[in-house]
Amino acid sequence: MEKKVSARPPLRWDLQRLKKDPEKAFFLLSGFWFLFMVLGGFADSFYFSESLTPTPLYIKIHGVSYSFWVLLYLVQTGFVATGNTSWHRKLGQITLVVLLVLWASGYYIVLYKAAQGANSLPDTGRNLFEIGMGIVLVVLAFIQRRKPYVHKRLMLAGMVLLTIAAVPRIILSFWNLEINVWAYYGFHLGPLAALVVFDVLYFKSWKWLSTVLLLGIFVIEFFRLPGKFFASDFGSKILEGLVGLF
Question: CB under 8 Å to 113, separation ≥6 — which residues?
């Protein structure tokens, strides 16, 4: 009798690869960092909420898709780190579907809150930009999936933007610290800053991509460029039109 050939090789957990290739270990650790950020930031308000008010369906959809995305990033970095690249490629096929749900539910929440008067237009615009730019970076990473160096760094930058909502929450609820600029940017841009340092040490030369991603996001966030754009006449009209749909 002929033996059936498996479509995919069985999962293997070759942890020795982490010692041989520090880059794989770095991105796996980044997956645990983002999971820690999300669990710590949304523990009280979503995962272990003791509120007597039922959580609206649209928040549940966003929370589940958001959680699944963060877990997906961790699992994918784990697959690569342990040599399960065929499983990594297979699981990557659902990336765009999860992103679509994440984008739609995220935009719905931001625009709905603005329509209810819970957020100002500049803050609403900034939130929309962060979600949208994070999605764009992940899509670019998916397009560049055959170029591992570019793929990994675009994906990490996308995660930095897509998990930004957890930053102030984890600072306030987990450590009960005041929000200050250094704490905020430390938690927010820490993974990208660590990546810049890692690239210099790992490749023994300055790598432009991680540096550009770090500086680009920092400049945009520090000078609040999205908020300023959406506070302008043109930007506010765009936002008013979107909020008017609700």
Answer: 119, 124
**Local structure of 4: helix, strand or coil:** coil
How does pLDDT run across 55-110, given as a tens digit for each residue?
A: 899 999 999 999 999 999 999 999 999 889 899 999 998 988 999 999 999 999 99
Phi-psi region of 117 (alpha: psi -120 to 50; beta: other; left: phi over 0): left
Task: Give the residue from 136, 158, 126, 137 showing the smallest Cα distance to 226.
Answer: 126
Pair of tokens at residue 118: 């819970």
Q: How far is CA 235 from the centre of its chain?
A: 25
d(CA 90, CA 96): 13
CA distance linking residue 43 with residue 36, whole number of Å: 10
Residues in the chain: 246
Cα torsion 216, 220, 226, 232: sign: negative
Q: Which two tokens stand for residue 39?
A: 């669990």
Q: Distance between CA 72 and CA 38 in Å, rounded?
A: 13
Tell me how far apart the alpha carbons of residues 120 and 127 are, in angstroms, rounded to a whole number. Answer: 11
Distance between CA atoms of residues 116 and 196, nearest Å: 41
Cα separation, 63 vs 5, whole angstroms: 39
Cβ burial 204-238 (10 Å sphere, 16+ → b, else e): eeebebbbebbeebeebbeeeebbebbbeeebeee
At 9 the three-state DSSP class reads coil
